[in-house]
């Protein structure tokens, strides 16, 4: 056994009040599917407030709340009508304040989602743009272009939107004639803002202050690598553009260097507060370019999706961890880790399907533009091409629990997604007629979209809608939810819920400096590391039992046999 270290280059002076986010466990709530308090079938803010005791008992440090703003739900709330209000179906600003106070009272911070790349087409600015002439200041807040061809009936370029289909939509001018086109990198209901426009910049500063003044502790920045665009007079064809995740910042709209001027300004706003507000970037960029998003002069932290996109494989995990710790060290940020979110197939299902062949159509999409929203990276196509019988649910869940326990032992922030503490699998059998995700509608037969991870949570097996609501759920819940409801798991000491609780509480106690030491084991399928407090995590990624290293076991993701071995797809935490 040999030891290789990853100590921090320079130990930092940390302040618990300012640096709470550096090693936080953050629980993502997708509000419309969390808990419904008023029986309309849609989760709401008072529903979250009612579940604060559950969140407190779970042992998380913060909640990341996905968009709760007024929205037509063309993209699950990421099409925002009004950035400084609450969707009336989800509650009021007073409900928001009550929820924030209840979370804070329970010692839980609140991070809200900010969606700056695009608004919804119902935003008052976009409606004003439609009612105003070409070239007007109202149009300048978005990206309008004349069409090609003699009558302008062809889109300004052949660019495809992330959800499939053209990235341009033609409007009807106020006088009723067919008119200009606007850019929407996502759904057509999500027109892209023009970030060269000062009013757009100012308005987002107002929005950040609006929520920071209401007491939010941080922001998750949606599509942080979008925003600034450089569109020349003659637009190149899609095929002529450099790769989206290019190393050079040469793309016309993704990951341009100028985007960091915006975040430098945002940082000044965050630092007006005491403690400064934190932010985390959702930036699907080349790993070499992630650091700037995470720098202290910028947003301060950025998601890395490396573990999320990796297979359950010791070598892949180790190289991602090593790379990301080194990256965090270089920027002064802390690492982020995540396996599941509202954009990807839940990780127990991914791991249970990992032997399935890649369907041809999906393989082609995969090598094209990586999905900024993540559905492709999250392997939704696996499900489109893999019938249910290819899913090994037990193996998937065992691997997922092992991976999660490993993640919770790492230095840095761990981002968890609602329902993963119940070990939920993806819901794979939503009838087409009940699906909601634009990714499904715009990629027929290739991508089943992201609804399967957004199905309302099962709280109580014996109640209507499994305790989610007194009436029903906005996406159909499967029968197997009755076996995994939270209330059942509460009573079972060996449930996934109780594993998460124990792990999250232990993590709070055991976290020390952001350092990790690899302990080399003979078997390459075993990943073993130690944290400074004498806390060890050992994972068996292989398919045969391996000898359990000596020490006192604190927690195990699966059954530990008496014969001193560690079973396949199991992680243990130990002290030595
Ligand atoms: C969000 C997605 C959303 C997209 C467009 C993503 O990064 O996570 O859910 O569809 O942005 O806003």
Report a brief summary of the structure:
This protein has helices at 45-50, 52-58, 93-105, 124-131, 198-213, 259-270, 291-294, 306-309, 314-331, 347-352, 360-367, 380-385, 393-408, 438-441, 486-490, 496-510, and strands spanning 2-6, 25-29, 62-65, 109-114, 144-145, 168-172, 178-183, 218-221, 278-281, 336-338, 413-417, 516-520, 526-531, 535-540, 546-547, 552-556, 565-566, 570-575. With 576 residues, the protein is an alpha/beta fold. The chain has 3 domains: 16-119 and 199-504, Glycosidases (TIM Barrel); 124-183, Oligo-1,6-glucosidase, Domain 2 (Oligo-1,6-glucosidase, domain 2, Alpha-Beta Complex); 515-575, Sandwich (Immunoglobulin-like), CATH 2.60.40.1180.
What does this protein structure show overall?
By secondary structure, this protein is of the alpha/beta class. The protein folds into three domains: 16-119 and 199-504, TIM Barrel (Alpha-Beta Barrel), CATH 3.20.20; 124-183, Oligo-1,6-glucosidase, domain 2; 515-575, Golgi alpha-mannosidase II (Immunoglobulin-like), CATH 2.60.40.1180. It is 26% helix and 14% strand. It has helices spanning 45-50, 52-58, 93-105, 124-131, 198-213, 259-270, 291-294, 306-309, 314-331, 347-352, 360-367, 380-385, 393-408, 438-441, 486-490, 496-510, and strands at 2-6, 25-29, 62-65, 109-114, 144-145, 168-172, 178-183, 218-221, 278-281, 336-338, 413-417, 516-520, 526-531, 535-540, 546-547, 552-556, 565-566, 570-575. The strands form four sheets. The protein has a seven-stranded parallel sheet with strand order 9-8-4-3-2-11-10. The chain has a six-stranded antiparallel sheet with strand order 1-12-13-14-18-16. The relative contact order is 0.12. Residues 356-377 have low confidence and may be disordered. The chain binds beta-D-glucopyranose. This is Alpha-amylase. Keywords: Glycoprotein. Pfam families: Alpha-amylase. InterPro entries: GH (IPR017853), GH13_cat_dom (IPR006047), O16G_dom_2 (IPR045857).
């Amino acid at each position: 056994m040999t030891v290789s270290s990853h100590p921090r280059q320079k130990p930092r002076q940390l302040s618990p009040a300012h640096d709470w986010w550096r090693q936080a466990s953050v629980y993502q709530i997708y509000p419309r599917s969390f808990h419904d308090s008023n029986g309309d079938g849609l989760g709401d803010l008072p529903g979250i407030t009612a579940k604060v005791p559950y969140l407190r008992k779970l042992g998380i440090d913060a909640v990341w709340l996905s968009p709760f703003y007024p929205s037509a739900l063309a993209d699950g709330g990421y099409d925002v009508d009004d950035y400084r209000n609450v969707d009336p179906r989800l509650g009021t600003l007073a409900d928001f304040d009550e929820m924030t106070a209840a979370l804070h009272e329970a010692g839980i911070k609140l991070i809200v989602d900010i969606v700056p790349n695009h608004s919804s087409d119902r935003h008052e600015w976009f409606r004003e743009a439609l009612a105003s002439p070409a070239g007007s200041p109202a149009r300048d807040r978005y990206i309008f272009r004349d069409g090609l061809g003699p009558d302008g009936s062809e889109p300004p370029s052949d660019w495809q939107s992330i959800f499939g289909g053209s990235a341009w939509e033609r409007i009807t001018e106020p006088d009723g004639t067919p008119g200009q086109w606007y850019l929407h990198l996502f759904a057509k209901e999500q027109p892209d803002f023009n970030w060269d426009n000062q009013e757009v910049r100012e308005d987002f500063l107002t929005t950040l202050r609006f929520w920071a003044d209401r007491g939010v502790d941080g922001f998750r920045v949606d599509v942080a690598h979008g925003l600034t665009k450089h569109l020349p007079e003659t637009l190149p064809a899609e095929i002529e553009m450099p790769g989206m995740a290019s190393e050079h910042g040469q793309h016309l709209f993704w990951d341009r260097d100028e985007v960091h001027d915006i975040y430098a300004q945002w940082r000044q706003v965050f630092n007006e507060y005491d403690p400064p507000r934190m932010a985390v970037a959702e930036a699907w960029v080349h790993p070499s370019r992630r650091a700037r998003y995470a720098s202290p002069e910028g947003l301060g932290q950025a998601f890395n999706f490396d573990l999320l996109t990796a297979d359950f494989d010791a070598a892949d995990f180790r190289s991602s961890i090593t790379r990301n710790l080194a990256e965090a060290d270089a920027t002064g940020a802390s690492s982020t880790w995540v396996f599941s979110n509202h954009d990807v197939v839940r990780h127990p299902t991914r791991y249970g399907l990992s032997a399935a062949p890649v369907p041809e159509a999906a393989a082609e999409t995969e090598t094209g533009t990586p999905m900024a929203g993540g559905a492709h990276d999250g392997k939704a196509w696996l499900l489109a091409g893999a019938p249910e019988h290819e899913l090994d649910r037990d193996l998937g869940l065992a691997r997922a629990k092992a991976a999660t326990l490993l993640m919770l032992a790492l230095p840095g922030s761990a981002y968890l997604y609602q329902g993963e503490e119940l070990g939920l699998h993806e819901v794979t059998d939503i009838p087409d007629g009940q699906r909601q995700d634009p990714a499904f509608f715009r990629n027929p037969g290739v991508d089943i979209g992201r609804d399967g991870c957004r199905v309302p949570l099962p709280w109580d097996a014996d109640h209507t809608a499994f305790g989610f609501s007194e009436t029903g759920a906005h996406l159909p819940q499967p029968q197997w939810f009755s076996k995994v409801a939270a209330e059942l798991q509460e009573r079972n000491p060996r449930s996934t819920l109780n594993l998460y609780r124990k792990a999250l509480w232990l993590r709070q106690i055991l976290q020390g400096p952001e350092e990790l030491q690899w302990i080399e084991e003979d078997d390459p399928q075993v990943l073993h590391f130690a944290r400074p407090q004498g806390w060890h995590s050992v994972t068996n990624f292989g398919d045969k039992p391996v000898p359990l290293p000596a020490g006192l076991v604190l927690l195990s993701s699966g059954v530990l046999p008496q014969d001193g071995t560690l079973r396949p797809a199991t992680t243990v935490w130990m002290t030595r």
